[in-house]
Amino acid sequence: MTLKPKRYAEGLAKTPPMGWNSFNTFGCEPTEELIKQSADVMVKSGLLEAGYRYINIDDGWMTDERDSAGNLVPDPQKFSNGMKPVTDYIHEKGLLAGTYLGCGQKTYGEKPGSLGYEERDAQLIADQGFDLLKYDYRELPGDPIGRGVKEDYVTMRDALMKTGRDMVFSICEHGKSDPETWAREIGHMWRTTPDIKDSFDEDINWGWSINHIIDETHALHHYAGPGGWNDPDMLVVGINGLNDWLGPGCTYDEYKSHFSLWCLLAAPLLIGCDIRKMSEETKKILLNKEMIAINQDPLGIQGYLLKKEHGIDYWVKPLANNDIAIGLLNRFNEPKEAVLSLSDLLKDGNYLMKEVWTNEQKELQSEWISKPLKSHECAVFRLISLKK
Q1: Is 195 in the active site?
Q2: What is the pLDDT of residues 269-297, one digit of tens each?
Q3: What contacts 68, CB < 8 A, 6 or more positions away?
Q4: pLDDT single digits (tens) 74-123
Q5: Which entry of 195, 231, 297, 313 is annotated as an active-site residue?
Q6: Phi first, then psi: what are they for 41, rounded to 5°?
Q7: Do 180 and 192 form a contact (C-beta atoms < 8 A)?
Q8: Among 223, 192, 188, 193, which Cα is nearest to 206's?
Q9: Phi and psi of 23, rounded to 5°?
Q10: Is 201 among the catalytic positions?
Q11: For an engineered disulfide with 356, which of 101, 114, 120, 290 has Cβ 3.0 to 4.6 Å away?
């Protein structure tokens, strides 16, 4: 009888991981100085206090070739002291350190991939003190015949288990093989789509807009829960169109809607902007504790799309203590009125109604919510049960 191996690092990611990723700001050019500066800002800005813990060093940290023994080598121009002093610095700040490996022959930045080197690379990042691995799938000519996506991730999962170090395992195969159907037994989060772009409506180059990603991910809600999460990619809040390859940028209301939907979707909240240069508007969005509480709710239920009607999306996310989160998203380029009956949602007892972005709270006096919405605005309400 073959026993199924114990699920890797089962105690991790009970709520969606929160942190920052280097790629959308620094591309494949992270450096020790940039990472340390970002770690400093995570603490000083209040992001750590709000729950953002991971500093994730994405593609480009290694040299173009392995050494003579077959090991990955930190790029001496970018990380002259190696990676361990960087992870030590991150840990001393009370943060956690994440890194990146390529699931294939090469990473997307043309660095050595881990295909055939899984145990060696897993032990290396464990020895360097990393707490999260983003494992990014890429196919190239010359791949082994019959190479399978799931099998590659199982191989790395087993290699991580062998190190004895628990790390959040982020499966990044861009949603090509329906990872929600198999990834929970292997990792802690799985990408549901291609790369996100800094665009609310229009897909850019090889990536998808915020709206496109929402449409792809909302129906996967029954796969998510404590220990395993649908990952619609990192946040573009605050990018502001500064990286041309990411897209034209979004308005303040669109960024608020983007953050609102990621919170309702119980998505990992990984900031992608340059947090060293955040505007006050960006901070206001990313540090909204009421929205974060909805995302981090201990029930771990992903919100679902109740209905689409006249250009309005109506979202529901059950919360602990019989509370309910409601999201009203105007997809139109013009103002719309959202009207939602609550009769099928309310449990026994009375409720207070708190509008999260305005912080207005009042007793819920009817079974209807009515709200005028600006173009692309998402209003979020928390219905607070008075019967606990």
Answers
A1: yes
A2: 999 999 999 999 999 999 999 999 999 99
A3: none
A4: 999 999 999 999 999 999 999 999 999 999 999 999 999 999 999 999 99
A5: 195
A6: -70, -35
A7: yes
A8: 193
A9: -65, -50
A10: no
A11: 290
- Prediction pTM value: 0.96
**In 10 A of CB 194, how many CB atoms?**
18
Q: In this structure, which amino acid lies at residue 52?
A: Y
Residue type, 229: W
